[in-house]
Amino acid sequence: MSRFPPISGTGMIIDGKALASEMEAETIARVEKLAAIGRRPGLATIIVGENPASAMYVRIKHSACDRVGIRSQTVRLPEEARIEVILETIKGLNEKDDVNGILLQLPLPRGRDPAPAMAAIDPAKDVDGFHPLNMGTLLAGAERLVPCTPKGIIWALERLGVDLEGKEAVIVGHSNVVGKPLAAMMLNRNATVTVCHVFTKDLAAHTRKAEVLVVAAGVPGLIRGDMVRTGAYVFDVGINRVGDRTVGDVEFDEVLVVAAAVTPVPGGVGPLTVSMLMSQTATAAEMQMSSEER
Amino acid sequence: MSRFPPISGTGMIIDGKALASEMEAETIARVEKLAAIGRRPGLATIIVGENPASAMYVRIKHSACDRVGIRSQTVRLPEEARIEVILETIKGLNEKDDVNGILLQLPLPRGRDPAPAMAAIDPAKDVDGFHPLNMGTLLAGAERLVPCTPKGIIWALERLGVDLEGKEAVIVGHSNVVGKPLAAMMLNRNATVTVCHVFTKDLAAHTRKAEVLVVAAGVPGLIRGDMVRTGAYVFDVGINRVGDRTVGDVEFDEVLVVAAAVTPVPGGVGPLTVSMLMSQTATAAEMQMSSEER
């Protein structure tokens, strides 16, 4: 964990890459245990069309597969593929024994609703955790396969020794991918949770109270230094292109001197998310094996 | 809507019975439309053992069925019924065409985990909204069959003309039945939502900010007048026996003079919940019909 000269906080930069490597080391051990009994996990990604950002994310995920020893395959569908074709592709992968995890790369091209596609993925292979059955199980407090970004943040907080019970946690952004599932996960750990978003009247009044602050708004520089409580743990989920730079939603330099610790962008939440996807693919393979044994 | 002499709020007592009657009038119209084409909705309740409170709740629900013209039936299982027997009973009701809604009265007797039983109910007949598929669909923002108490509160807020978008909403209690699903429903309507509970360090600091305050803690008199913001809408979900009286979680007389409006206990959230169960039974019957037509 690298450190920065502290002023009022302790100014620690949360090294997402280093934490992700620790997580991957655990995953490698689990993958090799599975491989030793002929059950090396496999991840299949469906990518529809030619979105360059999607292509990049898929490359990043599959390169993580290579690092941890998970087999990966990509199913490419043309830009104009109808929803029926996407659903058929998913059904085919649901039935393949050597595919333990299925990833539908979002967004789908215009006019194709992702909801029925996500609901078509076998919940036991839903390594992204977006299937409504997995989301509902999460909301009810039993976490199995859950969205990777929130779970990566929860994992990092545990690693950093932050016990969420009784903590004031504030989430900025109420998306289905980050904000809402993270709120459920934090409530399951007995944090006091506030979810803010674009309709919130006084954002700073909330963020200033946060002992744990997670920002997933997609607005560059939204969170300034004076909006952060001294000693807070700050996770920046934003990935924004500003000119030729990639920046988060947090004004990093300002917040670093106030907070106990902050994730940078890039190199913070992103690597944690990718490594959590690897971990969940291993989890899916383990769960599928134990359900066969029953 | 009855009114009370206002001091600093407007001191309105939210008449849950009157609102419930309005909702039931709507439900009666829907039920009669279904009955006219030979599809009068039916609700089946499974009750395990002899819990007197459960017996009372089932009586209240079935008397509501009588009022709105929904057929009701009760399946009584003995106290010692094993989980397998409960699951078989549910499967039988799932297959019956004249049962549109299935209610498993909770709590189950000791040693029987309700989770697999709730997950065994056909999601299309899950009028209590506790099936993980319905909970997950709710969390993802598409509300179909959802828990009745939160939905009753949302319905009442709409009736009272309170638009949740941008409102500061605070929920006290993070149960699967009320707090967590209500938080999801309020986020779906773009409120800023804070969920507090027994682990919250400074409850009053949160409740004093609430424009909409929902209390479901099961602690008599938890919310005092000085913990409520002037002009707040306050919903008291608590049902506590104190001596021979039934009281809520809100110190009613103190809060009434501060708030814009408060639900009493009894006669507030309770009747709304029961009427919402009737409404959802009609919804289930309507959805089942339209899915047959497809």
Automatic annotation (TrEMBL), chains A, B:
**What Pfam families does the record tag this protein with?**
THF_DHG_CYH, THF_DHG_CYH_C
Residue sites binding NADP(+) per the record: 173-175, 239
Question: In UniProt terms, what function does this protein have?
Answer: Catalyzes the oxidation of 5,10-methylenetetrahydrofolate to 5,10-methenyltetrahydrofolate and then the hydrolysis of 5,10-methenyltetrahydrofolate to 10-formyltetrahydrofolate.
Family as reported in the entry's similarity comment: Belongs to the tetrahydrofolate dehydrogenase/cyclohydrolase family.
E.C. designation(s): 1.5.1.5, 3.5.4.9
User: InterPro entries, from UniProt?
Assistant: Aminoacid_DH-like_N_sf (IPR046346), NAD(P)-bd_dom_sf (IPR036291), THF_DH/CycHdrlase (IPR000672), THF_DH/CycHdrlase_cat_dom (IPR020630), THF_DH/CycHdrlase_NAD-bd_dom (IPR020631)
Q: Which residues form the Tetrahydrofolate dehydrogenase/cyclohydrolase catalytic domain?
A: 14-128
This protein is called what?
Answer: Bifunctional protein FolD
